[in-house]
## 1
Amino acid sequence: MARGKNKGGKKEAPDSTKTPSSESQPSESQPSTSQIPTTEPTTTIEDDLGGLGLGESRKRRPRKKPTEKQESAQAELSNPKLTQTDNSKAEVPKTEAPKTEALKPEAPIPEACKSEAPKSEESKIETRGSKPESAADKPQDDDDGLGLGLGGGGRKKTRSRKPKFTAVETDIKYSKAPSSEPAIPGPSQSKPITSTASQPIQYVQNKPEVKAAPAAPVLYKIPDKILSPPSRTVPILTNYLAMKITKPLKIYRYDVTFKPDKPKKFIAQVFKLVKSKEFPKEILAFDQTKNCYSLTPLPKITTERYGVKVVIKDMNGKDMPFEVSFKASGIVDYNNVLKHMATGGSSLNAPTDTIQCIDIVLKQGTLESYVKAGRQYFMRPASPIDLGDGLEMWTGLFQSAIFTSKAFINVDVAHKGFPKNQPMIDAFTRDFRLDPNRPMDRQPGRAVEAFNEFIRGLKVVSKILGTGPSSGQLREHICNGVVDPPSRQTFTLENDKGPPVRMTVYEYFMKEKKYRIKYPDLNCLWVGPKDKNIYLPMELVEVAYGQARNKQLNDRQLSTMVREAATPPDVRKRKIEEVIQKMNYSKNQFFKTYGLEIANEFYQVEAKILEAPTLEVGPRQFTVPKKGVWQANCLLKPEALNSWGFIAIELDPRGCNYEDIVSKLMNTGRQMGMNVTQPKMACFNIRINDLHKSMLHALEKQVNFLVVVVSGRGRDYYHKLKQIAELKVGILTQCIKEDTATRRMNPQTARNILLKVNSKLMGINQALENRSIPQCLKGGAVMIVGADVTHPSPDQSNIPSIAAVTASMDTKCYIYNIELSIQTPKKEMIVQFEDIMVDHFHAFKKSQGILPKKVFVFRDGVSEGQFAEVMKSELTGLHRAYQRVAGLNAKPEVLFILVQKRHHTRFFLPGNNARFNVDPGTVVDRDIVHPRELDFYLVSHQAIKGTARPTRYHAVCNDGRIPENEVEHLAYYLCHLYARCMRAVSYPAPTYYAHLACLRARSLTYGEIFNNNDLEKNPKRLRVLDSMLKQSRMFFV
């Protein structure tokens, strides 16, 4: 199945929010403890509020253009021999390791698919088949596809030629179309730590294995689903519109280049002018980047470049010349996608060029008045919501073509923060509440910091003053920051009639522009190229209109966005229907001309409702969740909190509510069967610089666990605390935000704190009752693996990406080991996956005495265009890792599932129940998913606010041929084993733990500077102190 790719922006407005967590850091995205119980943390602000829960919000990952390495991955799929890579880092004792053989795909790639889809920002394509993403996001939010599935073929490269700027009358000719021993000593030890070792971050260099590198044959073919017996279904609605291809058309494709190619905002205007002059009768679709499609051959254009010169006017009426050149680049055949749909073609070789063309056609003519932001389009509402700190919320539209056994358009609403179009002085005074009559260094630090963050990279417009020829014209600049006030900021003015003159900005405007600055003590803005000194008084600058920025929202903005955008299902459905009515898809003549007919009604699909598992929540105590929630007054395996201490950072006993916190923890612990004693030590008003000493003092007092109340005065206190505790001292900590501590703690908050504390002490909160354990988890030792990669926001290009892989170490699939890796920014594949899995296998064998027979992987963060790459890199790496530990002939039974949250699929109940979300356990595995591959949507959680976002699961490997229904139950049941709350979360616990581990690694590396070039060659493994791991593998929960 294939779909138009969702290239996401960084932050979008949600249908969901983060639920505060009891361990909350004072930084932007850390939740508050008081509300831990509710749900899991959101992946993007578009997520529903309800199944998210307790960690930081994930940054959405933007979809990337395919790299050369990614493009080569598809070509390797058809290569019958998989060559040995140096990834294993293994030394061969005496004989050479045999080369790895890859089995041939069962079905050859159709010749019609062997043309390369053009790469454009507008039209990157997702091939529906498996993954989460980025998304990503990845976003991601957002978001990073390879555009694979073209059989490794591509258009022939032609020599670059200079465009001809004369009409050429001719016929059109088209080109063919080593790993270290794990630092994880056995089970948890209850004895307090006595070591006071202090050391920097541990970056582990992988050591070569003694065994030869494996040569496991890998079948690069996504397996077919193993059908289950029919089950009862219920009808639900989805935000898909049925689409019909009425004509098997052949569309002519052209590459378009612009010189200059900036500013981007003029590209669409230039193309429109060229079309009106050169091709007035042709019906064209253009992606506003480089790809143009036509129903008929364009006159004068062949495989040679044909150039046109045009001139447009800028905002000041000034001429702007452009050279636009066209080149025929192939023919797109609708029959390719029709054949793919009819035969259930593999996700690895979907006809992405045809899908891309249809996706661009669907956007042509309907979205011209919108502001484009990634794959979404926005328009300023009549009364936008104020998000604070200079931003307002705009409402937008997402649409994408999707092809399974049927054709659809996925239509959804989106929300995003845009800077207000207003005078900068108004933003300064009204939005940030700063005084324009005082320098910024004499004003509240937080407001000044927020303003500086707001203007950095902001587009601003200024009007030229004076009486010269440019007087009254507008200039657009990029803002770099602030400098001294006009009365103090000096610069050198070049003088044609004499030597350069040194003067202040105030003097310049007074003498040269005859303008008296109103706020001489207010800092100037530094704008334009960073190698130039262009200073403007703030009062003469305006914030430019319609800027789609990728900066991360702060806590206040995110909270407002979530509150306004996370609408109930009936409200969201009504908004989508209003968009559909406005677009009037069914009567759009442009679509019909291109052979597309689109319905205006939501598509009805049949869904299954899975029964919730029975959970063991205490000794001989069981419960069945209702609507994804359960209540339990005990713990399955409680651990005593009897050697603990209390620390308040920059707070006194009354300020941190010390007595109330201790009392609530002891009383609630008693109710849950958990022995919580009085703390052995309590320290107050501890400065962050003295925290290291306090923790060493705690070890001397035989304390092995600290509850820490973190003052809100320092945004980086949480990061520093975790660095000291886990990298320098080696002691477990549970953080509570000041806001939570100062409120009177209620029993529910105390209960959620103790759920985390018990897990950190290696206790077990709940487990599947024996009769609820899926059959696939029986018949041999099983390791459940979760994997994720988190990326920095687009404005943080110098910060690395972090990969985390979790692996279950016990028979109840509750205790997890984590391995962390730091790699180059934006890299989605886990570079050290093979070495990480070697360490996990060693740890599992040390814990269980045997190696796992089955390995089930739930991989988050992979975009749909990266199926081939994840199979080539990580699936192959898993097999090699196993053979490095178990021997060359060993082969585990692997189930490798890609988990996706970054999509725009939503489900709605019909009729009078429209105001409610679908029930937890709702599964859709037909019509809107791949017809042959193991691919399904699952809503596993109850959304507390907003419209529930289903999670998509797509298997790329299923060695054990586990039936579809059993895999669905496995995924659903794992969503009930998340330690932080008594709720089913929106995706499996191991994947959630991988996300939490990434966030912890982000804190542990906070403030460290990395060399990205070095990371490209030598990605780093990150480890906490051994003494931490001796106490608990679950320290990150």
Note: Residues 424-543 form a domain with the paz domain fold (CATH 2.170.260.10).
## 2
Amino acid sequence: MQSHRMCLKLLLAFALLLLRCVQGGEVSRKHRDATVTGRCIEKERQALLAFKRGLVDKSDLLSSWGSEAQKQDCCRWIGVSCSNQTGHVLQLDLSNKVVGAHSWNYYSLEGKMISPKLIELQYLHHLDLHGINFNGSQFPNFIGSLSNLRYLDLSSSDFGGKFPSQVGNLTNLQHLDLSSNYFTNAENLDWLPLLSSLRYLDLSLVNLNNVSNWAEVINKLPELTNLTLEDCDLPSPILSTLSYINSSKSLASVALLSNQLSTSIFLWLSNYNTSLVYLDLARNFLAGSIPDVLGHMSSLAYLSLSHNQLEGWVPHSFASICNLQSLDLDTNILSGQLSKFVQILFSTCAQNSLEILNLRLNNLTGSLPDLTNLSSLEVLWLNNNQLSGGIPESIGGMSKLNSIDFHMNSLEGVISGTHFSKLSKLQDLDLSWNDLAGSLPDLTNLSSLEVLNLGNNQLSGGIPESIGGMSKLNTIDFHMNSLEGVISETHFSKLSKLLVLDLSSQNSSNSLVLDVHADWIPPFQLDLLSLPSYKMGPYFPKWLQTQKDLSHLDISDAGIFDILPSWFWSLCRNVEFMNLTGNQIRGSFANLTLEFSYSPELHLSSNKLEGPIPSVLSTASYLDLSHNKLSGSISFLCSSAAIGLSFLDLSSNNVSGEVPDCLTHLENLVVLDLSYNALSGKIPTTIGSLFHIETLKLRSNRFVGQLPSSLKNCTSLVLVDVGDNKLSGPIPKWLGVSLRNLVILMLSSNHFNGSLPAQICHLTDIQILDFSMNNISGSIPKCLNNLTTLVQKGKSSLEIIHVLENLNGTPAYEDNATIIWKGRMYSYKNTLGLVKIIDLSSNRLTGEIPSEITHLVGLVSLNLSRNQLTGQITAEIGNLQSLDVLDLSRNQIEGRIPTSLARIDRLGLLDLSFNNLSGGIPIGTQLQSFDPSVYAGNPQLCGAPLKKMCAAQHVQTDLSNQEDDKDELITLGFYISMGVGFAAGFWGVCCTLIFKRSWRYAYFKFLNGLNDWLYVRVALIKRQLKDMLNR
């Protein structure tokens, strides 16, 4: 027994000794191992302190590093690990995950430089500085001398300069990550094969466009298992060399997304048929059919070919991929029936392993098939295809589904409770932008549901109160349906996690009513609230006061007739989009000291806001204050904070004073509308600094002086409207030279003088040209037929849509134009393509109407009235078949009305009054249907609809002798042709009778018979008359 105890003691002693030996070689960490007793090497401690001095640590993350007595042991510093046996520093890890950086402050540490004293850490085998911002500093060359390094991660550290090929000296490296830096283009990767132990390589965002042999180099890394070369501008492998590659057969994970790879990459990948588990080739230039080679990668579990140009469908060789868990073919041009596509998947052994199926943004057609065979499926994304038919109820049996996205298809039918009866794990359900109808079903059995999006369908009826019990919901989106009824507090009773509530309607007359108590306190804190056209008024909804986290707020057209409460702006500190348009909100911006966290979009038009505009609003990216009662100056534009402003509409207010000459910093402005105010003075020259401006509207103000020549720098201008001001001077020639993109040019109701410059004929895209009510003299240019858009018939594709960058709520703005149409002011937007107008009325133009104007067959309105034009109406006026308005009144035009005018059957407004026209009005239904007043002031005109009738011969002459439409029947040609025809016919018959005996005998026989018949008929008639007289 005693010997057994002795043996046991010896065994325990040996075990303890072995354990100590093992521990002696381990790495100790201050935050993991409390048994560390040794102190670090002094020169290594000094090297680390020198390294710290090269960092900017605003958050004091390295507070444990120091020279104080209690901080002497560097092995206890955060991010530092030492050998328990020798005390040497073995690991330095200051990545975000170690030092505790917050996601909202990614660069918690910044580097001024990396101290060269770090080379003292010669025993270092792990260095991770991921996420430290070195602000473009040169990569430290000495790191190539840390020969014991096995792990090096300098990703997302913002190093710059030449790509560090000296890393090739670190022959013991197993993990290398230099991704997301700012190195210059790498010339080669010839140093990589020196790292024969490398298992993990990530060079993402390093430009490797010049490295044509990258695939050969990778194959010379025998231990490599993980390769990530994302967004490296990689060229496709060279086919001629691939066949000679001696593949290592070790790669398990390959991520080559966002490069320039073509289908030749698949030949290289075929070397790894048995080893590849993860393959991501998204965002390349892969085209054609999905290759069969993928079906031979039997170990593949993750495959992404998204964002390419692949077509067809999954090859049958996929039947061999038994471990496939995720298939991502998003954003290609795959086509054909979805049922056939799925049938191939059903025939594979992967049908029980597939968890993610992403086929969205393709051209797949047909109905949704039964997918229950995909028993492990968790994510099913089929959105943005061309699927039709109903949703099969069998989908309700796929119990593992947690995300369904079918939006942007043509699915129809009714949603019933059985569709999703057993989907207790479902978290996301998006059926928006389809044609689903019926009422909303009870979905309370979806106990895990977080996102419910049924927007833009044809759903009707009320919203069931049971939705208030779905406590995990964070998103409810029912926008653009035909829902009705009352929404009460019960609908939200347990929705404490709700972040998004969008119930916006498809029309302004919303049938949903929000009926909550005045003192209601919602259980949620919303991020997005969209309830346009909900009648919340007349008072401002008090419950909004509880919502402190709003970033998106839309309560437009809500029937609010209240004063804007003082607490409202405190909710808007973090707002990115706000729409209060179309209410009757009163009040001012007095004492507004709010500082927005972002550059918000603010839609506050069509209210009754008054007072001056505060400078705090200049920080907005989109600011619409139109149709209010705002006053004062617009000096807020001088604030440097306005640099991000891309859209500004202050139209229809009472702002006054001069436009400040401080616009040079508004470099992002795309739309500027200051029309219908009381602004005065000259248009500032700094307006020429708005290089990105596309719409400039200054109508109905009191501007004076000339158009500033600096405006010719604004070459992106599409719409210019400075009508109804007091501008003067000649119309600048540079309008047609520099502003070639103009579609709408309106200079009406000003004091412009001089002649019309021929350069306006260079405006080939012009569709609305309005120079009316000025003092323009001279003749109408004959080159108007160069206005290409007006020469084309029919509706143009014109929609002036401005792309507003960096905006979430309004990424694009569709512009409008206000014009006088048939005597009334109209605003056109969606139908702007129908409006093609030239208006030169109320000027002092002289000379004849050029015949070239009749080439503008697309014109819908031509107004040349109230000028001093002479000559005749061009005979080809009838070519303008698209005209709806023609006004030539109050000129000195003479001669007859061309008959071709009667052929314009679309003409709805005609005015030829007060000219010197003469003769008869051409007969045609259209011209006779107008009121006689359109011909008044032409004493020599006659014919309907005037009471003065023309003489018959004059009418005949008017109809037959117009220069443009000569159609006489009896002409010299007629007589000549008649004579020739008679002679040919006479001699043709006579010659035949003379030379052809049978015809001559037949002819004489016919004459003899005719003679006998006539004799008998005359004798009978004579006898009948004689008998009648004898009676």
Note: Confidence is low (pLDDT under 50) at residues 1-38, 243-247, 953-970.
## 3
Amino acid sequence: MIDRSGGLVGPGPDAGAIDGGDPAGAARPAGPGWPLAPNQVGVHLADALAERPGMHTVVAAYRLTGTFDGELLAERFRALVRRHPALSSRLVDDGPALGMARSDTAPEWRDETLPPSAADDDGADRLLAECLRPIDTRRGPLMRGALLRRKDGDADLVLTASHLVVDDQAMETAVAEVLTGDTTRSPGDYPGWATAAAGAAVRGAGRAAARRAELSALPLGTDPAWGCGDAAAGDADGGQLPFTVPDDVWRKLAGTARTLGISRYSALTAAVGLVLARNGGTDASLVGSFVTRRPAAQRHTIGYFSNTVPVPVRLAEDGTVAGFLRTCHRQCLAAYRDADLPLFDVLPSGHQSGAGPLTAAVAPLWTPPPLRLPGLTARPLPHPFAGAAKFPLLVYVDMAAEGAARGLLQFRHRWFSAEQAALFTRQLVAVLREFAERPDARLASVTVLDEADRQRVLAAGLGAPLTPEELSVPALFTRRAGLSPDRIAVNDGHTALRYAEVDERSDTVARALAEAGVRAGDRVGVRMERSCDLIVALLGVLKTGAAYVPLDPSYPEARLALVIGDADVRVVVGDADSRPADLPEHIDWLPVRTRPRDPARPLPAVDPDLPCYAIHTSGSTGRPKGVLVTHRNVTSLLNATREDFGLGPDDVWSLFHSFAFDFSAWEIWVCLLTGGRLVVVPRAVSRNPEEFHQLLEDEEVTVLSQTPTAFGLLLATDRLARGGLSVRLVVFGGEPLDTRTLAPWFERYPKARVENMYGITETTVHSTTHTVTREDTRTGSRVVGRPLPGWEIYVLDARGRPVAPGVAGELHVGGAGVALGYLDRPELTAERFTTDRHPRVPGGRLYRSGDQGRLLPGGVLEHLGRLDDQVKVRGFRIELGEVRDALLRDPSVTSAAVVVHGAGTAEARLDAYVVLAAEGTTDGLLRRAAARLPEYMVPQTVTALTALPVTANGKLDTARLPAPEPDADAPAGPAGSPDAAGDVLDRVVGVWRDVLDVPVAPDDNFFDLGGTSLLALRLKTALRGAGLPELALKEVIRHATPAAMTALLRDRAGAPGENAG
């Protein structure tokens, strides 16, 4: 079989060929050479961008059985290369133009016998190695041959050629000439065709720019972010997976295509595009489609006549399937008409150096028939591809099949696991079935998951069953106090209270509140400093059946006034005898030590479905939102974690967080209801890592709850501390955790358990948990684990449909932790708290978190940040978390934050803030980030800080980040030049201006200014001619602004010996 994994082959009879118009002629000598045709330019650039140049090859492998003469085959192969100029040529790319010239090197031919001692009996490993060997295109010739003899007397004939000069039909011609020796057919004139095509491409530059502008309007990502591959894999490392489109689907699809007046190839393109768009969370995708432009008169010419054209697939979800297919067919035809243009010249800006640059492409799958000669049978081998993937996904389907259609999916390991590749084939078949059977259905109703996959996804979102708790928080506390009345419940550095004392004192507070008119269901404000009395007050409020409303005295008065008004607070409990001057007159003030008139007043039994607290979170309108969390929500959190975490009376907990932050509810109530001792951390101590570390050490705290930002400060202190900690369990929450920062902790405390818990105020603090491992600290895992027992978490798209594993969507949380809703915000409550379509308990609800996540193939959840963390810069959608992750992968960085300044304006830019390792500097940091990110995602500045600023709740405080340093990691020139930065930038801008013949600014994108693939080569040559350091073509393309290019040149000048290739 012929390996067309290089990717640029024609769609076959089902799609229709596009002919170019150049008359055939006799073969002519290459002479001084000829220019590359535009389709060849695309292959060259794809190869230049690859990490292993020379891998864009096409392989034909045949098993020879019978009588054959190795020397005769070698002679015919050499004659084949001499006869066809394309094969005997080499690439010329060291000047201002790309071209081909005759190679002076003899073609390689190997006749190799498998040794009798070889363990590889059938020679499969040897065949694979031959298929994967690159070809040196600059040296040539561009085809090699091998006869690999087997132990059984058969042999494998393997012809390997650069994709620059062959397509599938050319390889069939080559195999036939070698096996038959027939040279009577005209070889045509490939140099003449390529010369004419190159001239037409120059004349078509305006069409290329218009097409690029059209495609740039699509909401596209650059790389398949929904893949779950191996980041350490090479760009081209991949695998393949056969699949089948069932007979009934393929036949019905043919009927639907005839009715709609489209081809099945267009329907296949549409199906791939729909799966890509749904998996990418966008309304559009770009699919590579292979077309052939081989003129009929060049039928037997060996040359490369195919091209990849990008087909835009737009989802009109409210339209019909039929309308969608017709539109996609028209887009295919429009794309085919531009098949004479270089692929890179029509791709949207920013996509020239991405993953493929296309995520997926489609091609027909066709196996040539065996050749039967006198005494010899040549049978095409099973597909020899194994590892040299040219696209993240490449879909082959046998378009000529009458019954079930054979398919083959090739995929890159860097982007997709084998499990996920298999899922993609099932998604594709499911969509083709929908197309075939329901052309009149709304496109939005088309599922990309078959029923079995859908059920697996939903099952992964269910936590273990959890028996509801029938007692309230105060009832459980009283029961606990009865079990251990003399154990210390809480201490604050000045006072320590036993469980019995807390129970008795909270009864007193509750009776005083009842006498003040507080009833079940009311909301009572608590305005107190952190102390033992604070815990007494909170419990006292709960014993009345009321919910407590935290009023942290450290918060601004205006904020407290908003909370009091929003919660309709009538009574406030405080730690001062005198009423605060800023408290509204209609609010009653109750000192926590107030004695009730009736100390024997009975207290009500508290319904566990009543609100336990109302904690306010920030709102997008500036008005805080009060979240009502019930007693049953809190006790469910207790019961979901107690056994797994081994929580009990021997534990010592720290109350680190403000009681206005819901993390405190976890610290206070889970500690006290399991019989632990709660150590209240004074606010001043919580803001001082050295003092906090000493407190943890002195109090022998065993359970520590932290936000990652706050823990980073503590960890830095711990590295210098003489004494160790007694912590056995660290619980992270409140913000995303970068596990790479935890390596020093594991070194110092290898037995401590670390839990990364994802949660939201509206779903009761924590919803998932994941035990962090040492391996996580090496990989930078963002896994937040599985739902807690009793919780449910689903990853849904914008229309509420479950998405496939690996695909990002919004996290929807259901089950035991879902709060009642927002205080007096019925519209917002209805918007965010929705009906659970598949609840474990009838009447269940889901909370739309606003967080982005995905279900990994192993069934665990990965948190990807806030949906509103996505910003637009120069028209590109950017996930700030992805940029931050790239910075954190640099060994010189220990912490990082990325913000956008000037959002929504033409001057929008990304600025990075980093905390450096001991020996780290910002020198070259952005250049190294550019190796991991598209150009438009690389921050324009990087500012080093000693620590990232944090809020009172321990989260990153972006408002306190300083103005970016204007010269931080700014472009600069060769070392020793006093004004090198400005000088080099001016020279680069000048070269760009000369090449492009338009005005140029430092942040202008090369392709936005009208740059093309050929102009990129001219720019490369012009930069060298201007006396600047040598840049490889891929560096010119990937550093596509003068500023980015200048920064690269600066680093090149500062690193002698670093080559440009």
Note: The CA atoms of residues 78 and 790 lie 72 Å apart.
